[in-house]
């Protein structure tokens, strides 16, 4: 693999490629766990608010409960959002539904429950996207197939995403008509400066799992214009970036033409991407 350019040089390449192009629109502005900056994440309220704020789609996280129900929550247990700890895979749906996962965010959301997959699916308008992050191993895919069959969602509304390579492969086996992206973040070795996974490792994982694209952490120090160019040269041009709340970072990735940009602030990021300048108060960009 060729030596990658520095970020500064990558920005220069990007600027040259952009030329005199006007406002460039990312294909999809995706609300991370719903409009999670304003509402309690992974709740029906956060999904509905995301669409009110103009999101093109919502991303939601899913586990299996102990009795095999697909439930919407990010963490492996309920401690952070409910205040009491119940391990999701060891707790039946009925017990999980007794918990309040809204009040921690704001008193006005008191009473929000951990939603089922069906309840989240019902919030998706006909013209919007549903990004389904699977937080478990391949055992969740067969139940997901059954759950999807009960919805009115069309194939082109759905994108499945997952960090687990085996789960991605199972999705492509059981749900071949649906797109699935493999997710990855990156770590840099403090001594050598090397990043893992490397681009070669990313490409190898995409090919082994038969993923349709890459869901990549939006780290401009590593995932820059040259990284995306090399990824595309290897035959993997489809990608999306997460989780981008800084408008300058969003603008950078927007010009690289991702499938989507995932953000906690869908309304704010869309507004900033459509503005002539991405200069915003420092507090708003955090």
TrEMBL record:
Domain called GP-PDE: residue spans: 27-273
One of the record's GO molecular function terms: glycerophosphodiester phosphodiesterase activity
EC number in record: 3.1.4.46
Top EC category: hydrolase
Alphabetical list of CDD domains matching this protein: GDPD_like_2
A biological process from GO: lipid metabolic process
Keyword Signal belongs to the record: yes
Database matches in InterPro entries: GP_PDE_dom, PLC-like_Pdiesterase_TIM-brl
Signal peptide feature range: 1-26
Keywords: Hydrolase, Signal
PANTHER family: GLYCEROPHOSPHODIESTER PHOSPHODIESTERASE, CYTOPLASMIC, GLYCEROPHOSPHORYL DIESTER PHOSPHODIESTERASE
Official protein name in the record: Glycerophosphoryl diester phosphodiesterase
């Amino acid at each position: 693999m060729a030596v990658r350019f520095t970020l500064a040089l990558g920005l220069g390449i990007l600027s040259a490629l952009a030329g005199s192009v006007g406002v460039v629109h990312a294909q999809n502005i995706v609300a991370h766990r719903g409009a999670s900056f304003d509402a309690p994440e992974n709740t029906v309220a956060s999904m509905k608010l995301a669409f009110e704020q103009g999101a093109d789609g919502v991303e939601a996280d899913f586990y299996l409960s102990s009795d095999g129900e697909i439930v919407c929550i990010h963490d492996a247990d309920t401690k952070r959002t409910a205040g009491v700890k119940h391990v999701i895979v060891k707790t039946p749906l009925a017990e999980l539904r007794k918990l309040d996962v809204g009040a921690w965010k704001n008193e006005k959301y008191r009473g929000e429950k951990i939603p089922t997959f069906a309840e989240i699916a019902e919030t998706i308008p006909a013209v919007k996207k549903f990004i389904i992050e699977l937080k478990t191993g391949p055992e969740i895919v067969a139940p997901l197939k059954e759950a999807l069959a009960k919805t009115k969602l069309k194939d082109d509304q759905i994108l499945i995403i997952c960090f687990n390579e085996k789960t991605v492969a199972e999705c492509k086996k059981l749900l071949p008509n649906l797109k699935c992206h493999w997710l990855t973040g990156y770590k840099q070795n403090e001594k050598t400066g090397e990043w893992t996974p490397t681009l070669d490792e990313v490409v190898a994982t995409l090919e082994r799992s038969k993923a349709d694209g890459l869901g990549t952490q939006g780290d401009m120090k590593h995932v820059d214009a040259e990284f995306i160019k090399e990824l595309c040269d290897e035959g993997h041009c489809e990608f999306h970036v997460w989780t981008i709340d800084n408008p300058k970072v969003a603008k950078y990735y927007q010009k690289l033409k991702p499938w989507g940009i995932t953000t906690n602030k869908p309304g704010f990021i869309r507004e900033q991407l459509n503005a002539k300048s991405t200069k915003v108060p420092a507090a708003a960009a955090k």
